[in-house]
């Protein structure tokens, strides 16, 4: 069955994305598997999100487009590297699955859930938000266009509502 | 201060010049601070991208570049302080195994930008050991000019990813600053590598 993760995958393909840097996250798990199975894409698992903007800057220097997949908590690991994208006008497309909002059970996720969007904006990132499955693909398409044509950091915040409430069995 | 490194025989600018001369066609990423000045002193090139910031990001940037340009040699030259900030990236590089990437660390056991305070390598942290443990297939170390010369062929052509750590003298040298405008450096690099269309020129 087609769902919003398939929509993201299609938009990344249409945009010509070749490098997919990520720190695993449940919300991105299906997309990551799709990218890992794609012979045209290089799936690049990271040890920290901070590596992502640097990898993608190198990709752009070499003529390839990339995307960074992460969770809202990972946004906190990135600002100094996002600054490089701003300074050098590198494109930087980030897809952020949100925690710390709708139905969050883990209080430790609340601070970055609240700060991810404002922090990205503070760093000069254009921030979009997708709340419904129907809006995801279109939002990613618009974000990719601004990132790669406008040469700037752009993030799509994928609302926790899309992913469902994480419970750890509680 | 770390006085031991004041007497190391390898001189960083001679080493940078030797690596640049040995690799006229390679793509270079230079880590912020002294290694960027070293590569500039050896001759500023359009296909060198010198970092003025993004500390800890040089190896990861080299990885993205090496994956995008698998037919070109990509050489990251950075310092011990910079690499210590990005140790995880060594694991990320090793997992990707880009055969065309070499990461070279000039290890003077000091933070040169901020007053030559000791880095962890002064206390014995072994960057080559970290790279080896991460899974780099080819790791070289050098503490003498002879060993440094012997490592050059692997930097140039070893089946990578290659990691090479050189103990270099802790010395404060005259600035040799590369251009500072990051957007311009990026376009200069892409134009030289990919042609004028890559920067919107026709």
Automatic annotation (TrEMBL), chain A:
It comes from the Bacteria. Gene3D superfamilies: 3.40.50.970. Pfam families: TPP_enzyme_N. GO terms for molecular function: carboxy-lyase activity; thiamine pyrophosphate binding. Keywords: Decarboxylase, Lyase, Pyruvate. This is Phosphonopyruvate decarboxylase. Residues 6-100 form the Thiamine pyrophosphate enzyme N-terminal TPP-binding domain.
Automatic annotation (TrEMBL), chain B:
Gene3D superfamilies: 3.40.50.970. GO terms for biological process: small molecule metabolic process. This is Aldehyde dehydrogenase. GO terms for molecular function: carboxy-lyase activity; thiamine pyrophosphate binding. It comes from the Bacteria. It comes from Minwuia thermotolerans. Keywords: Decarboxylase, Lyase. The keyword Lyase applies. Residues 50-163 form the Thiamine pyrophosphate enzyme TPP-binding domain.
């Amino acid at each position: 069955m087609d769902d919003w993760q398939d929509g993201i995958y299609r938009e990344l393909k249409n945009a010509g994305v070749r490098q997919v840097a990520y720190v695993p996250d449940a919300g991105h798990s299906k997309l990551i598997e799709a990218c890992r199975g794609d012979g045209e894409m290089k799936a690049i698992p990271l040890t920290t999100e901070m590596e992502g903007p640097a990898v993608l800057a190198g990709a752009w220097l070499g003529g390839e487009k990339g995307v960074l997949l992460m969770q809202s908590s990972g946004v906190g690991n990135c600002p100094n590297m996002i600054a490089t994208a701003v300074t050098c006008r590198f494109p930087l497309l980030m897809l952020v699955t949100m925690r710390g909002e709708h139905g969050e059970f883990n209080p430790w996720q609340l601070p970055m859930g609240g700060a991810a969007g404002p922090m990205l904006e503070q760093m000069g990132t254009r921030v979009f938000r997708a709340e419904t499955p129907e809006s995801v693909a279109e939002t990613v398409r618009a974000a990719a266009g601004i990132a790669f044509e406008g040469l700037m950091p752009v993030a799509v915040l994928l609302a926790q509502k899309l992913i469902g409430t994480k419970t750890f069995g509680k | 201060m770390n006085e031991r490194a004041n007497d190391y025989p390898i001189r960083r600018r001679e080493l940078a010049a030797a690596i640049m001369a040995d690799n006229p066609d390679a793509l270079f990423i230079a880590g912020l601070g002294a290694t960027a000045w070293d590569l500039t002193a050896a001759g500023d090139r359009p296909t060198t991208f010198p970092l003025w910031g993004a500390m800890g990001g040089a190896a990861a940037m080299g990885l993205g570049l090496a994956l995008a340009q698998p037919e070109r040699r990509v050489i990251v030259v950075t310092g011990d302080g910079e690499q210590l900030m990005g140790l995880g990236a060594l694991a990320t590089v090793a997992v990707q195994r880009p055969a065309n990437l070499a990461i070279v660390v000039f290890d003077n056991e000091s933070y040169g930008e901020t007053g030559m305070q000791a880095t962890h390598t002064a206390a014995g942290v072994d960057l080559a050991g970290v790279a080896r443990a991460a899974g780099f297939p080819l790791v070289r170390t050098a503490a003498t000019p002879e060993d440094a010369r012997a490592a050059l062929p692997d930097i140039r052509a070893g089946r990578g990813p290659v990691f090479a750590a050189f103990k270099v003298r802790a010395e404060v040298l005259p600035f040799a600053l590369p251009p500072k405008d990051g957007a311009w450096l990026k376009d200069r690099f892409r134009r030289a590598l990919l042609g004028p269309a890559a920067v919107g020129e026709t």
